[in-house]
Design goal:
This protein is of the alpha+beta class. The protein is about 55% helix and about 10% strand. The strands form 3 sheets. The protein has a 3-stranded antiparallel β-sheet. Strands 2-4 form a two-stranded antiparallel ribbon. Helix 5 crosses helix 7, helix 6 packs antiparallel against helix 7 and helix 7 packs antiparallel against helix 8. It is globular. The two termini are about 30 Å apart.
Length: about 180
């Protein structure tokens, strides 16, 4: 069984996500919605928070899980050069912080006001290329269940950056163009 979502998703959004997968998958897979997912797909419920699928054929399940893991590997390994910011190294332990682009992307996907505030502070403190961040963020949204909501989160972030005087107003127009 596959499960998971942070947001409520409509049947239309769920079908769009599966359609996006269809363009990326090169193998057959049977997905059987159950619980709230089935009720949403059958238009009995408007939306569901949990997305539950049964993949009844073991080989298909294994291939699908490999595919889904590849989607979550959009961010480079935090151990690759530039993947983290070194904090301290002891004899047996290395401590680092996630690189700022990936940190901002993951926090803005959640999109709470505290995340926006944290991301604005990080952006203002360190030199981050706004265009490169936007490009990486927009690419990551393609694999999310609700890419439009994720881009809305980034627009809120961009507006906060403009308000703080960290970027120019035209950056909001560039973000909006990615919709």
């Amino acid at each position: 069984m596959l499960t998971g979502s942070k947001y409520r998703i409509t049947g239309t959004e769920l079908l769009q996500t599966i359609e996006n997968w269809e363009h990326l998958i090169n193998f057959k897979v049977n997905l059987i919605g159950c619980g709230g997912t089935a009720l949403t797909l059958l238009e009995i419920k408007d939306s569901t928070k949990d997305i539950d699928f049964i993949v009844p054929i073991d080989k298909e399940y294994v291939r699908l899980m490999k595919f889904l893991r590849s989607l979550t590997n959009l961010l480079d390994s935090p151990l690759d050069p530039g993947g983290n910011i070194p904090i301290k190294k002891w004899r047996h332990i290395y401590l680092g912080a996630l690189n700022l682009q990936d940190l901002i992307i993951t926090k803005m996907f959640r999109g709470m006001q505290v995340d926006v505030d944290d991301c604005v502070a990080a952006f203002a403190r360190f030199e981050i290329d706004p265009e490169e961040l936007l490009k990486r963020y927009a690419e990551a949204t393609k694999y999310e269940i609700n890419p439009e909501k994720m881009m809305q989160n980034f627009i809120v972030f961009a507006e906060a950056l403009v308000e703080k005087g960290v970027v120019k107003h035209h950056f909001i127009e560039k973000v909006a163009a990615y919709k």
